[in-house]
Design goal:
Layout: H1 11-34, H2 42-58, E1 82-84, E2 94-95, H3 98-112, E3 122-128, E4 131-138, E5 141-147, E6 153-155, H4 158-161, E7 177-185, H5 188-201, H6 209-217, H7 222-226, E8 231-240, H8 248-257, E9 267-269, H9 272-285, E10 293-300, H10 303-309, E11 319-323, E12 328-340, E13 346-357, E14 360-366, H11 370-374, E15 394-398, E16 406-411, E17 435-436, E18 445-446, H12 453-463, H13 476-483, H14 493-497, H15 499-504, H16 518-530, E19 533-535, H17 536-542, H18 550-560, H19 563-572, H20 579-585, H21 592-603, H22 605-615, E20 619-621, E21 636-640, H23 648-657, E22 661-663, E23 672-675, H24 681-688, E24 692-694, H25 696-702
Parallel strand pairs: 2-11, 19-20, 21-22, 21-23, 23-24
Antiparallel strand pairs: 1-6, 3-9, 3-10, 4-5, 4-7, 7-8, 10-11, 12-13, 12-15, 13-14, 15-16, 17-18
Amino acid sequence: MAKTDITELSVEEARAELAALSKALNTANVAYHGKDNPDLSDANYDALKQRNAAIEDHFPTLVREDSPSKQVGAPVQDGFGKITHAQRMMSLGNAFTDEDVADFTQGIRKYLGLSNDRPLAFTAEPKIDGLSLSLRYENGTLIQAATRGDGTTGEDVLANALTIADVPKNLENAPEVIEVRGEVYMTHADFDALNARQVERGSKTFANPRNAAAGSLRQLDSEITKSRPLRFFAYAWGVLSDPLANTQHGAIARLKMLGFQTNPLTQRFENVVDLIKHYQQIEQQRAALGYDIDGVVYKVDDLAYQSRLGFRSTTPRWAIAHKFPAELAWTRLEAIDIQVGRTGALSPVARLSPVTVGGVVVSNATLHNEDYIEGRDNSGELIRGGRDIRVGDWVQIYRAGDVIPKIKDVDLSKRPSDSSPFEFPKICPECQSAALRDVGDAVRRCSGGLICPAQAVEKMKHFVSRGAFDIEGLGAKQVEMFYHDPTLPIREPADIFTLKTRDAQQLSKLKNRDGWGAKSADKLFAAIDERRNISFARVLYALGLRHVGAQSASLIARHYGSWAVFVDAMDAASDQVGDAWDRLMSIDGVGEIMASSLVTAFIQPGERASITRVTDELTIIDAEKPDTDSPVTGKVVVFSGTLEKMTRAEAKARAEALGAKVSGSVSAKTDILIAGPGAGSKAKKAAELDIETLDEDSWLALIEDL
């Protein structure tokens, strides 16, 4: 959605944005409330809703009939009977900051005409992340159960509600008519067990406990609901024939006496400072509760005040939900594991008590490297105030967007008294080789190379990846299988090209194994043979040498031309001084770190022998050396729009063969833009920067191809 300041919007812009917001939010409501399959994170949903409310406040005459601010939940889906709520089920307004909470309490005082020295109490309770349910009892018997639906009409789920252990079927000493409202939820332990059973059955797993609970309650077959471990917390009421109490706190106590489960963290406070303190304490306990919450709900305690305050169109004036930051959560660090990657990097991973962050259950987080664990960044500066990270710590997790979860902070007040600093291993956990850290490198690396199984498997996966050998039928899964195969192993690249010969010598052939057959085995052998003829650049990239990517492999290949010349050059540059070293360093895009990585790979006996074994199996095609006399040698060119006389890939290859450097974007360093139809923004930027722009025919004429 637009990010324009609301005060700068024109009436038409505001009307258009409200229409787009209405469509997006109403679609999200149906996905979340109606289909139990949300397509927006809580953070994104809240941001859109806040934007919608702000625009409506600034342009009150533009409020739409289908405005999300007028909606509660979503319409009832097909398949369920409909129940009209005798008293509408509302949603809650949201607070996101301490200041919002203070404004809420001051607004209550202002509405009621209470001075700041008059007592005003509130209850504070965890906001359960589940599915709202209304239970109607008459003469002590449960006769009706309904979801919230759109607030006015809900789904009839009585048969399913009767299967939930926390839902009393009969009440004693209750009002003649009582409608109890609360939240159906699922504990973390039950959620994990349910997903495990789903996997065993080959069924779809659930993304988080809220989805699991909602999907389980809204089953057309109550036997399925009965098999799901659903729980219920009561926290409110609708229609009553007799009052439960005079206060919110007293009414909750009465519900507990009637046999309902109520949340033990619900407490009564008389000032904002204590409300916020309770919120912070609950946020700290969040991961240890065993069920998901996404905030704390504050309610005016005096029910007479609640009655005076009444309701807005969709929310009560006397209650508000203080939401937790959607992408933050506290949990316990259970262990630190060390994973070894393709380049030998030892990467620490935090194993966490599972916690839901941004709608996703998080149980792992990256710890980057040993400096990060110790409380320092790569330059040695303190982070987190110098607080280190230890097993057993209470840590704050953040997950912005779709990035890998990370640890933001540590609560030292909860650190176990017997904890000790984490000792980063100096020995590779996979092969017991020394794990070394070069000066200036933030990462410690295993020195075992191909004798390290973790490195070997990852290197093999890279070797067969799309940009490398790209062997059909030999992907990451097959690499894992063959690596651990005791009779027909693939432990290094050369093993791929001896696979057919070795299989012929086996009594038990590949074609006779589970998952294989004569046709699939023959296809694999043919695909391998097809890759025996391969370009210099692909071979170099496939070796997975540190710091050498696909683009740099192409640059190096074009510079040396043939594999034999390249190998001789690496040998000559082994001392990292002299003409051969200077020539390597002169290649545009090759720096000292990459050059050192290249020559080191060819110095090490084990790695050199492995490289030789695989290249002996190949016919390596020489690279086309660039034309140093062409009119575009050394120039940066960009292709944009549609090319009509050749494909984009062909045009790029020809430009590089002529010594040009092809870029994907226009900048001040660009020399020529070749613009076909539909060049768009790149052509505009080139004009602004006064960059030479050619059409396709002019480009071909320049390179003498016409």
